[in-house]
Specification:
Length: about 160
């Protein structure tokens, strides 16, 4: 079995965002909160494809993956930088800012119906390590491609660089 690592090299921002439903009978609030993210991801994926073709400037979004839990969902997003993430989040001409404003207006009707949360992590260049064994990688490698594991080091410590060795 081939052992691989992610091919991404450079600074990276990892953004976790999620939704937890506490009162599923509050259908309008749950629907508004749950329906906004797919539209934003579609917008980001369109930009990513157009930027790859040289038709638009990249927003810095590299890709994302979602997991679904009982009454909750979590998405992992990878961004080129925290500045790119914040620029997208605050831009009035993209979908996030209006969705954010709409969510708070709708959520006022029952503030306990859902929880929306996020966490942002800045990763320095060479500050991420990964290992994948199997026919199809997940995580960052599914976004950025793969390299043979040995190209970055055989151990996690080696792949993170000499500061941990």
């Amino acid at each position: 079995m081939d052992r691989m690592t992610h091919a991404y090299d450079g600074p990276l921002t990892v953004f976790l965002i999620g939704l937890r439903v506490h009162r599923p009978w509050r259908v309008g609030i749950v629907r508004q909160a749950a329906s906004a993210m797919p539209r934003m991801i579609a917008e980001l994926e369109r930009n990513k494809a157009a930027a790859a073709r040289g038709e638009e400037e990249s927003l810095g979004y590299l890709g994302s993956r979602s997991t679904v839990h009982v009454m909750a969902t979590t998405m992992v997003q990878w961004w080129r930088s925290t500045e790119d993430l914040y620029a997208y989040a605050n831009a009035a001409d993209h979908l996030h800012r209006p969705a954010w404003t709409e969510f708070y207006a709708v959520a006022k009707k029952d503030p306990g119906a859902v929880t929306i949360w996020h966490e942002t992590y800045e990763v320095t260049p060479h500050g991420a390590e990964s290992a994948y064994a199997g026919p199809k990688p997940l995580g960052l490698a599914s976004i950025a491609g793969v390299l043979p594991l040995g190209r970055r080091g055989e151990t996690a410590r080696q792949r993170l660089g000499s500061r941990l060795a």
